[in-house]
Amino acid sequence: MSLAETAIVPDTEQRGLVARLPAGARPYAMLARFDRPIGAWLLFWPGAWAILLAGGALDRAAVLLALFAIGAVAMRGAGCVYNDIVDRDLDARVARTRSRPLASGQVRVVAAWRFLVALCLIGLVVLLALDRPAQIVAVASLAPVACYPFMKRITWWPQAWLGIVFSWAALVGWAAATGGFSAPGLLLYAGGIAWVIGYDTIYALQDIEDDALAGVKSSARAMGRHVRPGVALFYLVALLLWGGAFWLRRPDPFALLALLPAALHLGWQVATLDVADAAGALDRFRSNRTTGLLLAMAALAAGSAG
Fold it and tell me: What is the pLDDT of residue 163?
């Protein structure tokens, strides 16, 4: 085995709770990435920001946060299953993903579709618990979600499309908390898109050589040697948009100061990013769970004082 192969970060690992599941259930857990909860966190946070920044009764916010947490786990799992169904041939050609259950043949395509339907039914239960405006916004997300797996074949910026999809919870959360749309919620959403482009570009660094061989497009390949300043620019745009959302919700310098911890954390990611270190890139990608938490705390401070 070559040095390059030993440096590959595995896409899924049978450890923790997944390792304790019956052998027949493990491939399905890994198909939905239950062994990699970071994706569910990243899907959850934009909705949490919107709910917390909107303010309102704490008991109502707690219920919404619980619903969004369940929905994030179920729908992120469903998205991963759908993505793997579409990408099973490409995944088999990339070192990090060739062990995925569909690409490796551990799960048949028909079984994957059945599992996808089961996860979507859980998402449907959550959807029915929301008010009508939030339901409409949530259902509207199905079109961009369905298109996402094909974007890496069409555009050099599939990360932008992922941003549209993964930040959608901000729109749903704002509608659920307020009953409609307003500028702060839209700015939160736009900032989320820029944030996702930044962190998913970091994630794409793991596959940059295999993607080139397989003909898969990504923002990491598009930026080339400018990845670090490119990620820094998208993170800066995200912070400016989030700052606008906070200011409109609470026109007070202290509301902007609440964003400082998240800004410092994003700055640390850029300053310590080594584009040649796949494991380091994965660590910095995963650290965006902390970014989400820091921004949620800031949104709570700004929303509760508004």
Answer: 96
Q: Which domain holds residue 153?
A: 3-10+20-305
Work out how many domains the chain is built from and give that number.
1
Per-residue model confidence as pLDDT tens digits over 224-265 = 889 999 999 999 999 999 999 999 999 999 999 999 999 999
Is 219 exposed, middle or buried, given 0-12, 13-18 or 19+ CB atoms closer than 10 A? buried
Question: For the residues of 151-187, what is the DSSP string, one character each?
Answer: HHHH-S-HHHHHHHHHTHHHHHHHHHHHSS--HHHHH
- Nearest partner of 28 among 94, 77, 76, judged by Cα: 77
Q: Where do runs of H (alpha helix) occur along the chain?
A: 3-6, 16-20, 26-31, 38-54, 58-91, 109-128, 132-140, 142-154, 158-166, 168-178, 183-204, 208-214, 219-223, 227-249, 253-257, 260-272, 278-286, 288-305
Phi and psi at residue 266, in whole multiples of 5°? -65, -40
Higher local confidence (pLDDT), 170 or 216: 170
Distance, in Å, from the CA atom of 278 to the CA atom of 52, rounded to the nearest integer, reads 34
Closest CA to 227 of 204, 207, 194: 204
The CATH number of whichever domain residue 241 belongs to comes to 1.10.357.140
Q: Which pLDDT value is given to residue 46?
A: 98
Query: Does residue 152 surpass a pLDDT of 90?
Result: no
